[in-house]
Design brief:
about 200 residues, alpha/beta, Rossmann fold, about 30% helix, transferase
Length: about 200
């Protein structure tokens, strides 16, 4: 069975793994499993996004496609007086993200199971963070870009990361079309981080 990390209910056998990593000056421990994205190490795109994202102390943040949680958990540490909502379609990823909130003593974040924005009611986020599932194709990724604008408050930011050779230029054009402009805020290791601002 050719199963992807964006499957709702992975049926692949469990194979737990623990990652210990330093991100933004703090050590984190993440429990991962088979059937979730980048389970052996934090992928370079995620690392670059975490390095580039600008999160204020009281921000309300959405981590769209949170996987086992590294982006949202670091964001919660940066937004200590704010709150973070972490979302994934993958039930196994959602359970891991909840476990990793506890492992890293994060109390200002919650995790919900949702196919994209379908179960996300809030429309007043300061920041949306996304490492999009490009293997699922533009038909999955582009609606996430479009709907992200609807869930940001005026002045809100969308940060996305993309492998340079895997459609970064087309992603930048899509963000520019939806938001009116796009900034490349960081690049490295074959990835680029883009930011759109809701005007």
């Amino acid at each position: 069975m050719n199963e992807h990390y964006f499957s709702q209910n992975p049926e692949v056998e469990h194979d737990f793994h623990e990652i210990v990593v330093e991100l933004r000056g703090r050590k984190y421990i993440f429990l991962t499993d088979a059937g979730v994205f980048s389970r052996k190490r934090i992928d370079r795109g995620t690392e670059l996004l975490i390095k580039a994202m600008q999160i204020k102390l009281s921000d309300k943040v959405l981590d769209m496609g949170c996987g086992y949680g590294p982006i949202g958990i670091v964001a919660a540490d940066l937004a200590l007086e704010g709150q973070v909502v972490m979302v994934d379609i993958n039930q196994r990823a959602v359970e891991l993200a909840k476990e990793n909130l506890e492992r890293n003593c994060i109390t200002n974040a919650r995790v919900i199971l949702s196919d994209g924005f379908s179960n996300v009611e809030d429309k007043d986020f300061d920041v949306i963070l996304m490492n999009p599932p490009f293997r699922a194709g533009k038909k999955v990724v582009y609606p996430l870009i479009e709907k992200s604008r609807e869930h940001l408050k005026p002045g809100g930011l969308l940060y996305t990361v993309c492998r340079t050779r895997q459609g970064a230029k087309s992603l930048a054009k899509k963000i520019e079309k939806v938001f009116g402009e796009v900034d490349e805020v960081d690049k490295g290791s074959g990835y680029r981080v883009y930011c759109g601002i809701k005007r």
